[in-house]
Amino acid sequence: MDARLGAITATGSSDDRDHKRDRHLRDAFEHAQREHPGVVRRAGAYWCDMPSGQVGQCEADADIYPASIVKVPIMAAVFARFADGTMRPDDPITIDARNQTATSGPAPFVTGYRTTVRELVDHMIAHSDNVATNQLIDLLHRERITALMHDWGLPSFLLGRKLSGCEPLIDDPEQVGRNRLIAREIGTLLLLIARDRVPGAAEQRRILGSCVDDAKLVPGLRPGDRFAHKTGETSTVSHDAGILTTPAGAHIIVLYTEVVPTPEHADATHANPFMATWMRSLRETL
What is the CATH number of the domain that holds 117? Predict the structure, then answer.
């Protein structure tokens, strides 16, 4: 990767901390807890008001498993490779059998399927495709993605293992640990993308705008709002993170939730009403 990309850093992540916004995040959480008790056991939130650069945080450094939110740094790393000329969107890729796992949405990536880097990225974000994600991890190498994110101001980020859609976890002999991406650091990356501080930012915003999962924070928005985002979910966590554009301005909004699992350990869709209520409460303050 181009060494010049290592100079990219976010702004407005610490010096512009606004404790009034911290309080708004906590108030939104407490309101959602009253409306939906017994669903969420812990939450982390990050909010950057882009016009002012002021930041609000509530447990934004909590070590909550990121689930599919980790796909956003993978997308960003792909566009860094496009920028330094070591990869092209139309480069041909053949799906490897070792990357097969359960996934959601339309799943064209059967073993032997001929695809391109662009198609892999589009499906990884729009449909949260795990096979596409795992193929891109092989292509970009997890340690290089981790190093790039550290250069960009995400010091605790780790892409340690491939993604699995179910138990047992995918066989991943190269794994180096559990994936880590805290709420504050995905907020940092989304701020870079929103401010055109990373390669391919406009195209990345377009891809984030294609996310098909609109059941978490989106129901808490108002008519005219636009949310370019990525969700993540397992049986124990439910997240949403993105760039919110309202008629009055733009914001980075991140909500991570650690949920009380259902008896059948199904995906955490039961957290969706909590998340929508949280967003509706916060939206009144934007």
Answer: 3.40.710.10
